[in-house]
Amino acid sequence: MKILHLADLHLGKNVVGLSMIDSQRYVLDQAIDLCKKEGIKHIIISGDVYDRSIPPEEAVTLLNSFLSKAILDEKLSVYMISGNHDSKERLACFNGILEKQGLFIDSNINKDLSMHKHTIEESGLKINIYSLPYIFPGEVRVLSGDDSIKDFEKAVIKVLDNNKLDDAVINILNAHYFVTGNEEPIRSDSEVRTSVGTIEQISYKVFDGYDYVALGHLHCPQHIGREAVRYAGSPLKYSVDEIKQKKCFTIIDIKSKNDISINKIDIKPLYEFVYLEGTVDELTQNSEVKDDRIVFFRLTDTSHVLNAATRLKIKYPHYVGLEYINIKDDVDGSEAGLSKEEGFEELSTSEQFDKFFRFITEKDLDQTQKDAVQSVVDELEKEA
Fold it and tell me: CATH number of the domain at 2-266, out of 3.40.190.10, 3.30.70.20, 3.30.70.270, 3.60.21.10?
């Protein structure tokens, strides 16, 4: 039996103002095609289905289209939990009705601390899938009456201890948490930190009773501690620090309780997300030829280039940002820092701007520009 493990879809996400909805649609269509090709009949989605608690209309439409194709057209079963980005109520509002169609959405645990359990019996195998959506320690503390529960690990242990496993069958846990192992997990800037310090960390050893732990929350595909405790990762690169990550589909291939293997299939994005390095002049040659890649630029110019972003966007419509790698932007303590220049603070606002303009562009303001600056300064001082 094969199960496709997905997580952190973040439907409706924008990357520095660039909508990812078309890219997300492209990837989800690939997921359906992969299920048909590999004979996969079940999909686990480990939370952060949407990028925010009130998703945009296009995100809701895309999820509906994907689930309709998976469940109605391909007769797949989908087991989905909520993550820290999702609204529990919105995600699971039609859960009871949709279960008969093969869609199981769990956004909470029961009041007695039991998890929702879904059983698959197929090809001589019996599999129990337990749902552990993202819940805060305070929720478990209230339900259990245990005032000692202050962190996520204690909360999760409390829930797991209230759910007895049948060791004779294959047990899978679908969870959305920050799980750590012997080595520091790979994290991304696009992940939301929900707490300070180590309060959100959970050791992978807490899940030793499960044959496979399907995790969501971290965006880099990786196993934690042991091969069967695994983050599927986000299907797309959602921040600059994810550019070098290899995104993939994770297939759980189950032959028996003691024979579970992982297959990873590379995801082909609609637009590659890449670094490009060079000077603005080098990168904007042949501007009439458009480059549809999503690009973050590492500029090698030795001084700031006027209208660099505007020039780059003409050739690269999916521009998301830039940095100058040969210019130290942090001027604190630097001899070049304007704020450290002797007498700078005593200058008038228009004189300071004149120096700032020269510092950035290595050019002086012309008279028209000086008049415009002075007009703005006069207006601001008048309002003040």
Answer: 3.60.21.10
